[in-house]
Amino acid sequence: MTKSRDKGVAMKKITERFTARELALTVCCALAALLCAGRIFLLLRGTGSVYTMGIFPMALLFGLYCLWKKALFYDEVFFSVPVRMLLAAGFTGLQVLGLFWSHAGIASAAEAFVWTVCLTPAAFAGQNVLFSLAGRTAGNAVCRNKNAERKQFWGAFALIFGGFCIPFATYYPAIMAYDVIPQLDQIRISGLTTHHPLIHTLMLKGCLAMGEFLAFLPNADRAGLAMYALLQMAVMAGCFAWVSVFLRRHGVFRWLCCAFVLCAAFFPAHGMLAVSITKDTIYGALVMVFTAFVWELAGSRACPEKGWLVRYVLLTAVLLLFRNNSVYAWVLYVLVISLCTWKNRAFFGRLLACHGAALLLYLMVNGLLIHAASATSATYAREMLSVPAQQIARVVQYHGEELTGEDMTALSAVWKEGLPEYEPAIADRSKRDIEGDRETLQILLNEWVSLGLRYPGEYTKAFLLKNKGMWDLTDTTYLNDVYTYAKGYLQITYPSDQQVYMEALAPGYVRHQKLQILQSLYRYFAAGDELWRYCPPMALVMQPAFYTYLLLFYCLCCIGPKKPLRLLPAVFLLALWGTLLFGPCVLTRYMYPLMLAVTVLALLLLGQKRQDNHSGRS
């Protein structure tokens, strides 16, 4: 009797919550999503694969929860229903496509289409909830207390730097990633070039020279590398601490600011990259700080004070010095912000002067560094040919028997040693034999156009597969470089066959083996096939594609409520993301600047006090 009464009460609550039509539609959508998910799991179990590192089950549960919260029937949340449905279908379709390509032959194209249709309503409901949360952000209330901010900064700096000391002690004197080998070669043997950011190479050279100067230390190389690691740790800790103060100043909840600091200090990825000798680490921190500056600029109703503008100019110049191709993204950002401030002549004039000063400062400092270091220009044309080389290589691999004699002649002229080698996730093998002379590049261009007209589908697939890590939330190709020494989340090792070369470049570098327990722990985290991948929250925040969609979500939350100026922080990031699309592969350290900057934007968007209105719900 009691059980039947409880069931009656539960049904009454459900009918009060849903109309009969809404309840029927919600149940159908939930059942369709569950049936498709079950089918996917069974198919993958048959192939011996476990799906999506736990991300898919977490996303499915979130979608089902949002269906239960009636999110399927939100009327207006930034966009009309057809637009939101199109966005949900596009997202779902990309994830199904990634699954379909990752497990060839797992299902037919027709069944993959059915999966997309059945899973789209859950994605639509989840999207509606996220839009609703973003729509109730209170705004950009700024509250400053300089004394409190100073204490917060130094407290955060001390905690973060202390957290970095753990991986520093573990990997003393530093983590030698494989990209440091050519830089050491420049410093010790071949002479400096501009292929890697010269300022970063000079920082490393200066620290090594300082290690030699400190004669009382037992080993100059280890001392110099340790000094570089400590310097980089200080820069990273300072940037994280400053951003934590910025977030608190702009109304982000205190507990989120504390979580941000704790994550910066103790999340292994940050600590390992802080002691890794790679150009991407400091650049990532600078992009994060630059994004915060632009957010503040976009929200200001009047032109900022002179001190702020001076700091903005200096930050911009240093940012450009630390990444060669960031100039292209920055120029696009300057054009957009100039168009947005055109009507406010005083504001426009000051910003134009600031951007001109930043560009001039960058050119002057870069020129002085090149002259003082006698560095040579080393811009390799093949570095910009990742996409064409991949597209041609794919056509050669899958349609080689269909190529004409003229095609083979052209390919032989470009790839002297033979045909291009195709590896879907990375372009290094397909472009490595291309010469950069004008004649070769012209032949390559003609052949690329010719094959593209005949095989447009293969060109599209080659482009998407090379960048799969940036759009597929279940992708694992970014974990496994084709070079065996680079496997793993952070690619923290160098080739074993280059050990002799490494010892010649830095004879004193020998990583100590005293903290084996900590080394095992960090190695467990950095590996590409460990169990952390099956912990849904951790797997999600470590997935590069997650930050692509987070950046898109931020843009949509600016476009929907018609807040175009709030898009300005995303312009530079979108342009930077675009340059990565044309790079050789997707690696975590390449995406690291976007990961940091997009996280800051997400905290500013979703981490502030909410308004009480519930507009947008049915």
Q: Can you characterise this structure?
A:
The chain is an all-alpha fold and 618 residues long. Helix content is 68%, strand content 0%. It is built from 26 helices and no strands. Helix 14 packs antiparallel against helix 25. Residues 6-13 and 612-618 have low confidence and may be disordered.
Strand content: under 5%
Give the class from helix and strand content and strand pairing. mainly alpha
The mean pLDDT is 84
Q: How many extended strands?
A: 0
- Low-confidence segments, ≥5 residues, pLDDT <50? 6-13, 612-618
Shape: globular
Largest sheet: number of strands, sense, barrel closure = none
Number of helices: 26
- State Rg: 26 Å
The percent range for helix content is 55-70%
Give the terminus-to-terminus CA distance: 36 Å
